[in-house]
């Protein structure tokens, strides 16, 4: 079987899909090496992968980016987005490539599966002349199209003559800016890893030219007539469901392995003491609203606090997660509100009627997969793009800000709870996500890049 490198920036939202794919490739018999930060080492090791640490690339803790990158500030707005690119995405790319090249000198890789925003992995694969695949952890905002405005602009695709001209002018301006600002930086990194200059001119060049695994389905993207052939929609990348060994006949049940620190239950999977309140609400038909701000933008003042205040005293039971911030930071909670640092979506969402979120792509896909409609307050990075896609697909509302007021949140939640069309649409797209194949389909596509010599 093949020796496959799976790379992931050390962010929770990136490690989820890449970790699931690494586990599937291990299950299929491949030797998987996981290149990620120390914080997420055990996630991959527990799946059977070998860990390759970030050494030349500057490692970091996604829960405290300011400790490693003081210049990042609060990470909000255009300034925060630019600092994110300068310090993390481009700032670590050369080190990533050099780490991977050094590991390949010790023992070659047959294939690289790269986090789409881990730019160094693709450069290393190019330098090694081996095939590589990209795993999209966001919508396809960086795949340019003659049918869409460029990423980062606050417009939906034009439908009339004037708006289409607007989009064309914006694409031309974005292409010029990219060639002037990004191409020189990428070519400096290319030179550092022994690659020649390239006329890139568009962010598409940061994806694999052979395989891009797109999380989601076409209905959650804008329609386009020029989608590249290497793009394959694979639904939501989450661990494959396998038969429970406890259900096997006793004679065939293997002896259980001794637990290791990496394989012990994740504390996030422990049901909180108030879980029975949630089950009772669901059983009685009481609405359940979930509030989440993800694991990256965890300033609770942006969304969680105003959403809790907006829904205090409502009929609904409100369950909020703080993304790792201690729940008691919220102070005394209203009678109808429960809080936890983390709750796994696949455990919680079957009991939820509406999810209020800041627009992390992984969380949005999890909600849709469970047929749960959304209220999205996207304010930074790709999250406004996610919010627009949710509204366009009819699975929820876009609040058009990352810091909504209480009244706006309350009205939006009431609208979605009272609008059965949102849930019907979410359930329809849940079926489409399931049909896209998920992790097994993604692994099949990855194995399709292997040569007969390495096997698939």
Explain this structure.
With 456 residues, this protein is an alpha/beta fold. 38% of the residues lie in helices and 11% in strands. It has 15 helices and 13 strands. Strand 2 (31-35), helix 2 (41-45) and strand 3 (50-52) form a beta-alpha-beta unit. The protein starts with a strand and ends in a 9-residue tail after the last helix. The chain folds into two domains: 3-57 and 92-235 and 437-447, 3-Layer(aba) Sandwich (Rossmann fold), CATH 3.40.50; 269-435, Glycogen Phosphorylase B (Rossmann fold, 3-Layer(aba) Sandwich), CATH 3.40.50.
Short structural summary:
Helices cover 38% and strands 11% of the residues.
Question: What percentage of residues falls in helices of 4 or more residues?
Answer: 25-40%
Shape: globular
Beginning-to-end CA distance, first to last residue: 7 Å
**Under the CATH scheme, which architecture of the largest domain would be assigned?**
3-Layer(aba) Sandwich
Number of strands: 13
CATH homologous superfamily grouping of the largest domain: Glycogen Phosphorylase B
What is the third-level CATH name, the topology of the largest domain? Rossmann fold
- Are there runs of 5+ residues with pLDDT below 50, and where? 245-268
> Which whole number gives the mean pLDDT?
89
Strand order of the main beta sheet, please? 3-2-1-4-5-6-7
CATH class designation of the largest domain: Alpha Beta
- Proportion in β-strands: 5-15%
Question: Measured on Cα atoms, how large is the radius of gyration?
Answer: 22 Å
Total of DSSP H or I helical runs spanning 4+ residues: 15
Structural class: alpha/beta
> Which oligomeric form is depicted?
single chain
Protein name: Glycosyltransferase
InterPro entries: EryCIII-like_C, Glycosyltransferase_28, UDP_glucos_trans
Organism: Micromonospora zhanjiangensis
């Amino acid at each position: 079987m093949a020796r496959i490198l799976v790379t992931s920036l050390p962010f929770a939202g990136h490690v989820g899909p890449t970790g699931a794919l690494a586990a599937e490739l291990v299950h299929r018999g491949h030797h998987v090496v996981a290149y990620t930060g120390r914080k997420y080492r055990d996630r991959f090791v527990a799946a059977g992968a070998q860990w390759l640490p970030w050494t030349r690339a500057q490692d970091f803790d996604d829960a405290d980016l300011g400790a490693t990158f003081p210049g990042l500030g609060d990470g909000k707005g255009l300034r925060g987005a630019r600092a994110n690119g300068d310090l993390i995405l481009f700032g670590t790319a050369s080190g990533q490539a050099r780490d991977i090249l050094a590991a390949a000198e010790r023992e070659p890789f047959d294939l690289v599966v790269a986090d789409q925003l881990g730019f160094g992995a693709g450069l290393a694969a190019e330098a090694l002349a081996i095939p590589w695949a990209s795993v999209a952890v966001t919508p396809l905002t960086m795949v340019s199209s003659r049918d869409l405005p460029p990423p980062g602009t606050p417009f939906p695709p034009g439908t009339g003559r004037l708006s289409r001209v607007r989009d064309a002018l914006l694409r031309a301006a974005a292409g010029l800016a990219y060639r002037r600002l990004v191409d020189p930086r990428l070519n400096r990194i290319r030179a550092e890893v022994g690659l020649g200059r390239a006329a890139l001119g568009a962010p598409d060049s940061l994806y694999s030219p052979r395989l891009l695994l797109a999380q989601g389905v076409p209905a959650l993207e804008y329609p386009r007539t020029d989608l590249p052939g290497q793009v394959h929609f694979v639904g939501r990348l989450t661990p494959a469901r396998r038969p429970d060994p406890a259900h096997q006949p006793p004679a065939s049940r293997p002896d259980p392995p001794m637990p290791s620190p990496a394989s012990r239950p994740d504390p996030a999977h422990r049901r909180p003491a108030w879980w029975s309140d949630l089950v009772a609400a669901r059983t009685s038909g009481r609405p359940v609203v979930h509030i989440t701000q993800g694991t990256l933008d965890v300033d609770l003042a942006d969304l969680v606090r105003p959403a809790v205040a907006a829904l205090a005293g409502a009929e609904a039971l409100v369950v909020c997660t703080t993304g790792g911030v201690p729940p008691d930071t919220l102070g005394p909670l209203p009678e109808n509100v429960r809080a936890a640092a983390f709750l796994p979506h696949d455990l919680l969402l079957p009991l939820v009627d509406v999810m209020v979120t800041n627009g992390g792509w992984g969380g949005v896909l999890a909600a849709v997969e469970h047929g749960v409609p959304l209220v999205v307050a996207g304010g930074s990075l790709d999250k406004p793009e996610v919010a627009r896609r949710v509204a366009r697909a009819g699975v929820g509302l876009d609040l058009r800000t990352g810091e909504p007021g209480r009244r706006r949140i309350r009205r939006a939640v009431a609208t979605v709870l009272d609008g059965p069309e949102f849930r019907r649409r979410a359930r329809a797209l849940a079926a489409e996500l399931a049909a896209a194949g998920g992790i097994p389909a993604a692994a099949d596509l990855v194995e399709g890049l292997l040569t007969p010599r390495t096997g698939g």
